[in-house]
Amino acid sequence: MNPSPRVCASVVCVLALSAAVFAGCRPAEKTEVEVDVRSVGFDAASHGPVVLLEDRSRGVALPIWIGPAEAESIAMQMQGVSPPRPMTHDLIKAMLEGAGVEFDKVLIRDLKGSTYYANIYLRAGRRALAVDSRPSDAIALAVRFHRPIFVSAGLLSGSTAIDLRPGAMAGTTIKYSGVTVQDLTDEIAGYFELPPGSGVIVADVDSDAPAGLKRGDVILEVDGAAIRGVGEFAARMDAVKRGAAAHLSVQRGAARVAVQFAARGR
């Protein structure tokens, strides 16, 4: 017995409604990713200041080249240095606060050619404002207001971003005493503000590995000898007597630390 047209229509409606409900339950893809200002430094290649933004999972970084005045403004605020007289961004902050305007967030939204575009989101009473801005000015104000900075997800997956995940650090890999190290690409070396070819990066640390090293460490020296790749690292570590501790010079974030590592063979 074939179902009536009315029954078929009802079934179609139920299926369509169910599909709409399930579609509404799917988690929405992120279009904006919150980032932190990791550092403001000088790029030796371009001879200009660069601000480095890093996502909260420490998986990707976005370098943006900025002007010297804006770099100084951001760096001074991050270091807690107060100028004797208000700088431009301090003045803007005072004016917005005096007018009762709330600073909501910053979004670095687009890249056209080699130029990044940003919006500053403000609120004046019930009125919301989106103001076009250079990223450098937007970042300088965000760090003063202690408000979040977001980057369009598309920019963090684009060619200008630096992928910091272990699998993305392409290069020779070796495992030694439960510690996996990899050669640094030029992009990753630049991220750590190191010359190309410097050191090896710790990509993974087994639970039973000797204490001392952490994932993300960059090993620069073994017993005072500079390391320029996993081959040199392995050779230097093999030269360490079994049971003896190798003295490592390690870049950990912005700090240089000394680590004693008791090698026990590969």
Architecture overview:
The protein has 266 residues and is of the alpha+beta class. It folds into 2 domains: 32-156, Bifunctional nuclease domain (Roll), CATH 3.10.690; 165-262, Roll (Pdz3 Domain), CATH 2.30.42. The protein contains 7 helices and 15 strands. It has helices at 5-25, 68-78, 88-98, 135-145, 153-156, 186-191, 230-238, and strands at 32-43, 48-55, 60-65, 102-112, 115-124, 127-133, 149-152, 162-163, 173-176, 179-183, 200-205, 218-222, 225-226, 245-252, 255-262. Strands 6-5-4-7-1-2-3-8 form an 8-stranded mixed beta sheet. Strands 9, 10, 11, 12, 13, 14 and 15 form a 7-stranded antiparallel beta sheet that branches.
What's the end-to-end separation, in Å? 73 Å
**Highest-level CATH class of the largest domain:** Alpha Beta
Tell me the number of structural domains: 2
Quick one: biggest sheet?
8 strands, mixed
Count all strands and give the number.
15
CATH architecture of the largest domain: Roll
Descriptors:
266 residues, alpha+beta, 27% helix, eight-stranded mixed β-sheet, Bifunctional nuclease domain, elongated, 2 domains
Architecture blueprint of SSEs:
Layout: H1 5-25, E1 32-43, E2 48-55, E3 60-65, H2 68-78, H3 88-98, E4 102-112, E5 115-124, E6 127-133, H4 135-145, E7 149-152, H5 153-156, E8 162-163, E9 173-176, E10 179-183, H6 186-191, E11 200-205, E12 218-222, E13 225-226, H7 230-238, E14 245-252, E15 255-262
Parallel strand pairs: 4-7
Antiparallel strand pairs: 1-2, 1-7, 2-3, 3-8, 4-5, 5-6, 9-10, 10-11, 11-12, 12-13, 12-14, 14-15
